[in-house]
Design goal:
Structural class: mainly beta
Helix content: under 10%
Number of helices: 0
Largest sheet: 5 strands, mixed
Bound molecules: zinc ion
Strand content: over 45%
Distance between the termini: 68 Å
Shape: elongated
Strand order of the largest sheet: 5-6-7-8-9
């Protein structure tokens, strides 16, 4: 009843990012695991800690956040704070809305990725 597990790693043999099948623990080295490249079937010993590495970790610092308001304009990379949601976020990109307005995509700490209005022109 063994189920194969896979991680994505750059293969030391074929040099390409490949799906690696975990084939077993390395005897005598607890933090090493044997992997086999699904492309070239080369086996290699890798740090098992490496597979736990996460990319794109955003740290949210309340003091650096600008309070969000739809009339404001925000730059990509700026940290914002949404008072209604009590959530901090980081502006990841900007776009034009279909109605010709401006919108920002924000990665929030709790709410995830949300699209918000910016530079809202208030009608009289
Ligand atoms: Zn390979």
């Amino acid at each position: 009843m063994s189920k194969s597990k896979y991680v994505t790693q750059v293969c030391t043999s074929c040099g390409r990012e490949s799906k690696m099948e975990i084939i077993g623990e390395v005897v005598g080295a607890e933090n090493k695991v044997w992997y086999r490249c699904t492309r070239c079937h080369h086996s290699m010993m890798l740090d098992s800690a490496a597979k736990k590495k996460e990319d794109n970790i955003i740290t949210y610092i309340r003091e650096e956040c600008v309070n969000y308001s739809p009339e404001k304009i925000f730059a990509v990379g700026v940290s914002i704070y949404h008072t209604d949601w009590d959530d901090m976020g980081k502006v990841t990109s900007k776009e034009k809305t279909s109605s010709g307005g401006n919108a920002i995509w924000v990665q929030f700490e709790k709410s995830g990725i949300k699209k918000l209005i910016e530079n809202l022109q208030l009608a009289d």
